[in-house]
Write a structure and sequence with these properties.
0% strand, 18 helices, mainly alpha, Growth Hormone, Chain: A, single chain
Protein backbone atom coordinates (compact mmCIF):
# COMPACT_ATOMS: atom_id res chain seq x y z
CA UNK A 1 0.00 0.00 0.00
CA UNK A 2 1.36 3.43 -0.94
CA UNK A 3 2.09 6.15 1.60
CA UNK A 4 -0.66 8.27 0.00
CA UNK A 5 -3.22 5.47 0.42
CA UNK A 6 -2.20 4.92 4.04
CA UNK A 7 -2.57 8.62 4.79
CA UNK A 8 -6.01 8.67 3.15
CA UNK A 9 -7.12 5.67 5.28
CA UNK A 10 -5.77 7.41 8.37
CA UNK A 11 -8.02 10.41 7.69
CA UNK A 12 -11.09 8.21 7.31
CA UNK A 13 -13.46 8.29 10.27
CA UNK A 14 -13.34 5.10 12.32
CA UNK A 15 -16.62 3.19 12.18
CA UNK A 16 -16.60 3.04 15.98
CA UNK A 17 -17.88 6.62 15.99
CA UNK A 18 -20.84 5.64 13.78
CA UNK A 19 -21.67 2.82 16.20
CA UNK A 20 -21.38 5.23 19.13
CA UNK A 21 -23.74 7.64 17.35
CA UNK A 22 -26.36 4.95 16.70
CA UNK A 23 -26.09 3.82 20.31
CA UNK A 24 -26.51 7.40 21.53
CA UNK A 25 -29.72 7.80 19.52
CA UNK A 26 -31.03 4.46 20.79
CA UNK A 27 -30.31 5.32 24.40
CA UNK A 28 -31.85 8.76 23.89
CA UNK A 29 -35.15 7.19 22.75
CA UNK A 30 -35.03 4.74 25.66
CA UNK A 31 -34.45 7.67 28.04
CA UNK A 32 -37.64 9.26 26.75
CA UNK A 33 -39.44 6.01 27.55
CA UNK A 34 -38.08 6.01 31.09
CA UNK A 35 -39.06 9.67 31.61
CA UNK A 36 -42.70 9.01 30.72
CA UNK A 37 -43.92 7.80 34.16
CA UNK A 38 -42.76 11.00 35.85
CA UNK A 39 -44.97 13.09 33.53
CA UNK A 40 -48.00 10.76 33.68
CA UNK A 41 -48.02 9.82 37.38
CA UNK A 42 -50.51 12.54 38.42
CA UNK A 43 -52.97 12.50 35.48
CA UNK A 44 -53.01 8.69 35.33
CA UNK A 45 -53.82 8.45 39.04
CA UNK A 46 -56.47 11.16 38.72
CA UNK A 47 -58.25 9.44 35.81
CA UNK A 48 -58.45 6.03 37.47
CA UNK A 49 -58.64 7.29 41.06
CA UNK A 50 -55.45 5.48 42.07
CA UNK A 51 -53.26 6.75 44.92
CA UNK A 52 -49.68 7.78 44.25
CA UNK A 53 -48.51 4.69 46.12
CA UNK A 54 -50.55 2.48 43.76
CA UNK A 55 -49.24 4.17 40.61
CA UNK A 56 -45.72 4.16 42.07
CA UNK A 57 -45.97 0.38 42.46
CA UNK A 58 -46.32 0.02 38.66
CA UNK A 59 -43.30 2.25 38.13
CA UNK A 60 -41.25 0.35 40.72
CA UNK A 61 -41.92 -2.93 38.87
CA UNK A 62 -40.78 -1.25 35.64
CA UNK A 63 -37.58 0.05 37.25
CA UNK A 64 -36.82 -3.24 39.00
CA UNK A 65 -37.18 -5.30 35.80
CA UNK A 66 -35.15 -2.73 33.87
CA UNK A 67 -32.30 -3.36 36.28
CA UNK A 68 -32.75 -7.13 36.51
CA UNK A 69 -32.52 -7.49 32.73
CA UNK A 70 -29.16 -5.67 32.63
CA UNK A 71 -26.70 -8.49 33.43
CA UNK A 72 -28.62 -10.93 31.25
CA UNK A 73 -28.66 -8.32 28.48
CA UNK A 74 -24.85 -8.17 28.64
CA UNK A 75 -24.73 -11.93 28.09
CA UNK A 76 -27.34 -11.65 25.31
CA UNK A 77 -25.19 -9.04 23.53
CA UNK A 78 -22.38 -11.61 23.44
CA UNK A 79 -24.67 -14.43 22.30
CA UNK A 80 -26.93 -12.71 19.75
CA UNK A 81 -25.15 -9.45 18.95
CA UNK A 82 -25.79 -5.82 19.78
CA UNK A 83 -28.01 -4.98 16.81
CA UNK A 84 -30.59 -7.73 17.37
CA UNK A 85 -30.88 -6.92 21.07
CA UNK A 86 -31.25 -3.19 20.41
CA UNK A 87 -34.03 -3.85 17.88
CA UNK A 88 -35.80 -6.13 20.35
CA UNK A 89 -35.57 -3.46 23.06
CA UNK A 90 -37.07 -0.75 20.83
CA UNK A 91 -39.87 -3.11 19.70
CA UNK A 92 -40.82 -3.88 23.31
CA UNK A 93 -40.84 -0.21 24.29
CA UNK A 94 -42.99 0.74 21.32
CA UNK A 95 -45.47 -2.11 21.83
CA UNK A 96 -45.75 -1.59 25.59
CA UNK A 97 -46.50 2.11 25.38
CA UNK A 98 -48.73 1.90 22.29
CA UNK A 99 -50.95 -0.77 23.86
CA UNK A 100 -51.13 1.13 27.16
CA UNK A 101 -53.12 3.89 25.45
CA UNK A 102 -56.15 1.55 25.32
CA UNK A 103 -55.58 -0.07 28.73
CA UNK A 104 -58.23 0.46 31.39
CA UNK A 105 -57.44 -2.04 34.18
CA UNK A 106 -54.66 -1.86 36.76
CA UNK A 107 -53.27 -5.30 35.86
CA UNK A 108 -52.94 -4.21 32.23
CA UNK A 109 -50.66 -1.34 33.25
CA UNK A 110 -48.66 -3.72 35.44
CA UNK A 111 -48.10 -5.99 32.41
CA UNK A 112 -47.48 -3.25 29.83
CA UNK A 113 -45.63 -0.54 31.78
CA UNK A 114 -44.20 -2.85 34.41
CA UNK A 115 -43.15 -5.96 32.48
CA UNK A 116 -43.04 -5.16 28.74
CA UNK A 117 -41.60 -1.63 29.00
CA UNK A 118 -39.33 -2.72 31.86
CA UNK A 119 -37.83 -5.52 29.75
CA UNK A 120 -37.40 -3.25 26.72
CA UNK A 121 -35.67 -0.62 28.86
CA UNK A 122 -33.31 -3.28 30.21
CA UNK A 123 -32.14 -4.15 26.70
CA UNK A 124 -31.44 -0.48 25.90
CA UNK A 125 -29.87 0.73 29.14
CA UNK A 126 -26.55 1.84 30.59
CA UNK A 127 -25.21 -1.70 30.16
CA UNK A 128 -25.55 -1.25 26.39
CA UNK A 129 -23.32 1.82 26.52
CA UNK A 130 -20.72 -0.08 28.54
CA UNK A 131 -20.78 -2.99 26.07
CA UNK A 132 -20.30 -0.68 23.08
CA UNK A 133 -17.50 1.27 24.78
CA UNK A 134 -15.63 -1.92 25.75
CA UNK A 135 -16.13 -3.63 22.40
CA UNK A 136 -15.39 -0.74 20.04
CA UNK A 137 -12.95 1.51 21.92
CA UNK A 138 -9.54 1.12 23.53
CA UNK A 139 -8.69 4.81 23.53
CA UNK A 140 -11.30 7.38 24.60
CA UNK A 141 -13.33 4.67 26.34
CA UNK A 142 -14.11 6.81 29.38
CA UNK A 143 -15.13 9.77 27.23
CA UNK A 144 -17.38 7.60 25.05
CA UNK A 145 -18.98 6.06 28.14
CA UNK A 146 -19.60 9.55 29.50
CA UNK A 147 -21.27 10.71 26.26
CA UNK A 148 -23.41 7.56 25.99
CA UNK A 149 -24.46 7.86 29.62
CA UNK A 150 -25.32 11.51 29.01
CA UNK A 151 -27.89 10.37 26.45
CA UNK A 152 -30.26 9.95 29.40
CA UNK A 153 -29.88 13.64 30.15
CA UNK A 154 -30.33 14.54 26.50
CA UNK A 155 -33.45 12.36 26.41
CA UNK A 156 -34.90 14.35 29.30
CA UNK A 157 -33.98 17.60 27.59
CA UNK A 158 -35.69 16.52 24.35
CA UNK A 159 -38.74 14.65 25.65
CA UNK A 160 -39.80 16.05 29.03
CA UNK A 161 -40.97 19.58 28.10
CA UNK A 162 -42.61 18.23 24.94
CA UNK A 163 -44.41 15.44 26.79
CA UNK A 164 -45.44 17.68 29.69
CA UNK A 165 -47.01 20.21 27.31
CA UNK A 166 -48.74 17.41 25.36
CA UNK A 167 -50.10 15.80 28.55
CA UNK A 168 -51.40 19.15 29.81
CA UNK A 169 -53.17 19.82 26.50
CA UNK A 170 -54.35 16.33 25.50
CA UNK A 171 -54.18 14.05 28.55
CA UNK A 172 -51.70 11.41 29.73
CA UNK A 173 -52.06 9.21 26.62
CA UNK A 174 -50.12 11.76 24.58
CA UNK A 175 -46.86 10.83 26.37
CA UNK A 176 -46.83 7.09 25.54
CA UNK A 177 -47.83 7.93 21.95
CA UNK A 178 -44.79 10.20 21.58
CA UNK A 179 -42.47 7.51 22.94
CA UNK A 180 -43.99 4.76 20.80
CA UNK A 181 -43.42 6.82 17.63
CA UNK A 182 -39.88 7.78 18.66
CA UNK A 183 -38.79 4.20 19.34
CA UNK A 184 -40.27 2.98 16.05
CA UNK A 185 -38.38 5.75 14.21
CA UNK A 186 -35.05 4.60 15.70
CA UNK A 187 -35.40 1.00 14.53
CA UNK A 188 -34.41 1.60 10.85
CA UNK A 189 -31.33 3.51 12.01
CA UNK A 190 -30.25 0.52 14.10
CA UNK A 191 -30.96 -1.94 11.28
CA UNK A 192 -28.96 -0.10 8.61
CA UNK A 193 -26.03 1.37 10.55
CA UNK A 194 -25.39 -0.69 13.71
CA UNK A 195 -22.61 -3.30 13.64
CA UNK A 196 -21.86 -5.85 16.33
CA UNK A 197 -18.07 -5.87 16.14
CA UNK A 198 -15.13 -4.05 14.49
CA UNK A 199 -14.31 -7.15 12.47
CA UNK A 200 -17.59 -6.75 10.56
CA UNK A 201 -16.16 -3.63 8.93
CA UNK A 202 -12.66 -5.03 8.59
CA UNK A 203 -11.21 -3.05 11.46
CA UNK A 204 -10.09 -3.14 15.07
CA UNK A 205 -11.30 -1.21 18.12
CA UNK A 206 -10.56 2.49 18.01
CA UNK A 207 -7.06 3.18 19.32
CA UNK A 208 -5.55 -0.30 18.81
CA UNK A 209 -2.54 -0.20 16.48
CA UNK A 210 0.43 -2.37 15.66
CA UNK A 211 0.52 -6.16 15.31
CA UNK A 212 -2.36 -8.02 16.88
CA UNK A 213 -1.18 -10.07 19.85
CA UNK A 214 -2.78 -13.23 21.19
CA UNK A 215 -4.15 -11.29 24.17
CA UNK A 216 -5.76 -8.79 21.81
CA UNK A 217 -7.32 -11.64 19.82
CA UNK A 218 -8.76 -13.02 23.04
CA UNK A 219 -10.20 -9.60 23.86
CA UNK A 220 -11.69 -9.44 20.36
CA UNK A 221 -13.49 -12.74 20.98
CA UNK A 222 -14.88 -11.36 24.24
CA UNK A 223 -16.02 -8.19 22.52
CA UNK A 224 -18.03 -10.28 20.13
CA UNK A 225 -15.67 -11.14 17.29
CA UNK A 226 -16.81 -14.71 17.93
CA UNK A 227 -20.29 -15.10 19.39
CA UNK A 228 -20.33 -16.51 22.87
CA UNK A 229 -21.83 -19.96 23.06
CA UNK A 230 -23.91 -21.57 25.75
CA UNK A 231 -26.80 -20.31 27.81
CA UNK A 232 -26.55 -16.50 28.37
CA UNK A 233 -28.53 -16.72 31.62
CA UNK A 234 -26.20 -19.41 32.98
CA UNK A 235 -23.15 -17.32 32.08
CA UNK A 236 -24.60 -14.21 33.74
CA UNK A 237 -25.37 -16.14 36.94
CA UNK A 238 -21.93 -17.79 36.97
CA UNK A 239 -20.24 -14.40 36.75
CA UNK A 240 -22.45 -13.13 39.58
CA UNK A 241 -21.47 -16.02 41.86
CA UNK A 242 -17.80 -15.30 41.19
CA UNK A 243 -18.21 -11.55 41.71
CA UNK A 244 -20.05 -11.99 45.01
CA UNK A 245 -16.87 -13.40 46.54
CA UNK A 246 -15.13 -10.05 46.01
CA UNK A 247 -15.62 -7.24 48.56
CA UNK A 248 -15.38 -4.52 45.91
CA UNK A 249 -18.44 -5.93 44.13
CA UNK A 250 -20.56 -5.22 47.20
CA UNK A 251 -19.16 -1.70 47.49
CA UNK A 252 -19.84 -1.02 43.80
CA UNK A 253 -23.32 -2.54 43.96
CA UNK A 254 -24.18 -0.83 47.26
CA UNK A 255 -23.10 2.60 46.06
CA UNK A 256 -25.05 2.13 42.83
CA UNK A 257 -28.12 1.09 44.85
CA UNK A 258 -27.92 4.52 46.46
CA UNK A 259 -27.32 6.11 43.05
CA UNK A 260 -30.54 4.61 41.68
CA UNK A 261 -32.54 5.46 44.79
CA UNK A 262 -31.47 9.10 44.62
CA UNK A 263 -31.90 9.65 40.85
CA UNK A 264 -34.50 8.01 38.60
CA UNK A 265 -36.25 6.28 41.49
CA UNK A 266 -36.81 9.45 43.52
CA UNK A 267 -36.18 12.61 41.48
CA UNK A 268 -37.03 11.21 38.05
CA UNK A 269 -40.31 9.72 39.28
CA UNK A 270 -41.50 12.13 41.97
CA UNK A 271 -39.99 15.61 41.50
CA UNK A 272 -42.81 16.81 39.24
CA UNK A 273 -45.40 15.62 41.76
CA UNK A 274 -43.48 17.18 44.66
CA UNK A 275 -43.25 20.47 42.81
CA UNK A 276 -46.99 20.35 42.06
CA UNK A 277 -47.66 19.89 45.79
CA UNK A 278 -45.79 23.17 46.36
CA UNK A 279 -47.82 25.05 43.77
CA UNK A 280 -45.43 24.72 40.84
CA UNK A 281 -47.22 23.86 37.53
CA UNK A 282 -46.35 20.53 35.89
CA UNK A 283 -44.95 22.07 32.70
CA UNK A 284 -42.63 24.30 34.71
CA UNK A 285 -41.54 21.36 36.87
CA UNK A 286 -40.81 19.32 33.72
CA UNK A 287 -38.75 22.26 32.49
CA UNK A 288 -36.79 22.04 35.75
CA UNK A 289 -36.00 18.38 35.04
CA UNK A 290 -35.00 19.28 31.50
CA UNK A 291 -32.69 21.99 32.88
CA UNK A 292 -31.12 19.36 35.13
CA UNK A 293 -30.71 17.19 32.04
CA UNK A 294 -28.82 19.98 30.28
CA UNK A 295 -26.35 20.30 33.15
CA UNK A 296 -26.08 16.53 33.42
CA UNK A 297 -25.14 16.35 29.73
CA UNK A 298 -22.18 18.58 30.56
CA UNK A 299 -21.37 16.92 33.89
CA UNK A 300 -21.51 13.31 32.71
CA UNK A 301 -19.47 13.98 29.56
CA UNK A 302 -16.88 15.75 31.71
CA UNK A 303 -16.98 12.83 34.14
CA UNK A 304 -16.06 10.45 31.33
CA UNK A 305 -13.09 12.67 30.40
CA UNK A 306 -12.00 12.89 34.05
CA UNK A 307 -12.30 9.12 34.61
CA UNK A 308 -9.66 8.57 31.91
CA UNK A 309 -7.22 10.79 33.84
CA UNK A 310 -7.91 10.81 37.59
CA UNK A 311 -8.57 8.43 40.48
CA UNK A 312 -12.17 7.26 40.07
CA UNK A 313 -12.64 6.61 43.80
CA UNK A 314 -12.15 10.29 44.56
CA UNK A 315 -14.42 11.29 41.68
CA UNK A 316 -17.21 9.13 43.13
CA UNK A 317 -16.60 10.55 46.61
CA UNK A 318 -17.16 14.05 45.22
CA UNK A 319 -20.21 13.07 43.14
CA UNK A 320 -22.08 11.31 45.93
CA UNK A 321 -21.19 14.01 48.45
CA UNK A 322 -22.45 16.79 46.17
CA UNK A 323 -25.64 14.88 45.42
CA UNK A 324 -26.31 14.23 49.09
CA UNK A 325 -25.96 17.91 49.98
CA UNK A 326 -28.24 18.86 47.07
CA UNK A 327 -30.99 16.50 48.26
CA UNK A 328 -30.76 17.77 51.83
CA UNK A 329 -31.31 21.26 50.41
CA UNK A 330 -34.25 20.29 48.13
CA UNK A 331 -37.16 20.46 50.64
CA UNK A 332 -36.21 24.03 51.48
CA UNK A 333 -35.74 24.89 47.80
CA UNK A 334 -39.27 23.68 46.95
CA UNK A 335 -40.78 25.96 49.58
CA UNK A 336 -38.49 28.96 49.07
CA UNK A 337 -37.82 31.42 46.22
CA UNK A 338 -37.63 30.21 42.63
CA UNK A 339 -33.87 30.85 42.61
CA UNK A 340 -33.41 28.04 45.13
CA UNK A 341 -34.77 25.47 42.70
CA UNK A 342 -32.45 26.84 40.04
CA UNK A 343 -29.46 26.33 42.32
CA UNK A 344 -30.62 22.77 43.05
CA UNK A 345 -31.08 22.03 39.34
CA UNK A 346 -27.53 23.17 38.55
CA UNK A 347 -25.71 21.30 41.33
CA UNK A 348 -27.84 18.16 41.25
CA UNK A 349 -27.91 18.11 37.45
CA UNK A 350 -24.11 18.24 37.15
CA UNK A 351 -23.78 14.82 38.76
CA UNK A 352 -27.18 13.23 38.04
CA UNK A 353 -25.51 10.22 36.43
CA UNK A 354 -21.89 11.37 36.43
CA UNK A 355 -21.24 8.34 38.67
CA UNK A 356 -21.50 5.94 35.71
CA UNK A 357 -18.14 6.42 33.88
CA UNK A 358 -15.96 6.04 37.02
CA UNK A 359 -18.06 3.08 38.18
CA UNK A 360 -17.59 1.39 34.80
CA UNK A 361 -13.84 1.97 34.95
CA UNK A 362 -13.53 0.69 38.52
CA UNK A 363 -15.51 -2.42 37.56
CA UNK A 364 -13.02 -3.06 34.76
CA UNK A 365 -10.06 -2.53 37.09
CA UNK A 366 -11.39 -5.00 39.65
CA UNK A 367 -12.79 -7.72 37.37
CA UNK A 368 -10.93 -7.30 34.07
CA UNK A 369 -12.28 -6.64 30.61
CA UNK A 370 -13.55 -10.17 29.96
CA UNK A 371 -16.17 -10.06 32.71
CA UNK A 372 -16.57 -6.29 33.14
CA UNK A 373 -19.76 -5.90 31.06
CA UNK A 374 -21.65 -8.66 32.86
CA UNK A 375 -20.43 -7.62 36.33
CA UNK A 376 -21.43 -4.04 35.54
CA UNK A 377 -24.81 -5.39 34.50
CA UNK A 378 -25.26 -6.78 38.01
CA UNK A 379 -24.09 -3.47 39.48
CA UNK A 380 -26.74 -1.72 37.36
CA UNK A 381 -29.27 -4.26 38.65
CA UNK A 382 -28.48 -3.05 42.17
CA UNK A 383 -28.93 0.52 40.88
CA UNK A 384 -32.43 -0.29 39.67
CA UNK A 385 -33.35 -2.19 42.83
CA UNK A 386 -32.51 1.03 44.67
CA UNK A 387 -34.54 3.02 42.16
CA UNK A 388 -37.54 0.69 42.49
CA UNK A 389 -37.28 0.89 46.29
CA UNK A 390 -37.23 4.70 46.21
CA UNK A 391 -39.99 4.98 43.59
CA UNK A 392 -42.41 2.98 45.75
CA UNK A 393 -41.22 4.23 49.17
CA UNK A 394 -41.39 7.91 48.22
CA UNK A 395 -44.94 7.42 46.95
CA UNK A 396 -45.88 5.64 50.18
CA UNK A 397 -44.27 8.41 52.27
CA UNK A 398 -46.23 11.04 50.35
CA UNK A 399 -49.48 9.09 50.78
CA UNK A 400 -48.91 8.60 54.54
CA UNK A 401 -47.38 11.94 55.55
CA UNK A 402 -48.66 14.28 52.85
CA UNK A 403 -45.13 15.41 51.94
CA UNK A 404 -42.01 14.15 50.17
CA UNK A 405 -39.63 15.93 52.57
CA UNK A 406 -38.53 12.85 54.53
CA UNK A 407 -37.95 10.91 51.30
CA UNK A 408 -35.58 13.63 50.03
CA UNK A 409 -33.76 13.92 53.37
CA UNK A 410 -33.34 10.13 53.66
CA UNK A 411 -31.91 9.90 50.13
CA UNK A 412 -29.49 12.73 50.90
CA UNK A 413 -28.21 10.92 53.98
CA UNK A 414 -27.72 7.71 51.98
CA UNK A 415 -25.64 9.61 49.41
CA UNK A 416 -23.31 10.94 52.10
CA UNK A 417 -22.81 7.37 53.40
CA UNK A 418 -22.10 6.15 49.84
CA UNK A 419 -19.50 8.92 49.40
CA UNK A 420 -17.43 7.37 52.19
CA UNK A 421 -18.12 3.76 51.18
CA UNK A 422 -16.61 4.13 47.68
CA UNK A 423 -13.15 5.17 48.89
CA UNK A 424 -11.76 1.63 49.45
CA UNK A 425 -12.84 0.31 46.00
CA UNK A 426 -9.94 -1.08 43.91
CA UNK A 427 -7.40 0.31 46.39
CA UNK A 428 -4.01 -1.26 45.80
CA UNK A 429 -5.00 -2.74 42.44
CA UNK A 430 -3.40 -1.86 39.13
CA UNK A 431 -5.74 -1.08 36.30
CA UNK A 432 -6.75 -4.16 34.34
CA UNK A 433 -7.95 -2.21 31.35
CA UNK A 434 -6.20 0.21 29.08
Amino acid sequence: MSHESTARDGRKMHYAWVVAGVTFVTLLAAAGARATPGVTLLPLGNEFQWSRAKVSAIISINIFLYGLIGPFAAALYQRFGLRRCMLAGMALLSAGYALSMVATAYWQFVVLWGLVVGAGSGLAATVLGAAVANRWFTERRGLVMGVLTASTATGQLVFLPWMAAAVTAQGWRAAPLIVALATVAVMPVIWFFMRDDPREVGGRPYGETGPESESERARERERGGRAATGNPAKRALAVLVEAMRVRDFWLLAGSFFVCGASTNGLIGTHLISAAFDCGIPEVRAAGLLAMMGLFDLVGTTASGWLSDRYNCRYLLFGYYGLRGLSLLFLPQALLGPVAGLGVFAVFYGLDWIATVPPTVRLTGEVFGREKASIVFGWVVAAHQVGAAFAAYTAGAVRTSLGSYAWAFLGAGALCLIAAVAVLPIARGRSAAVA
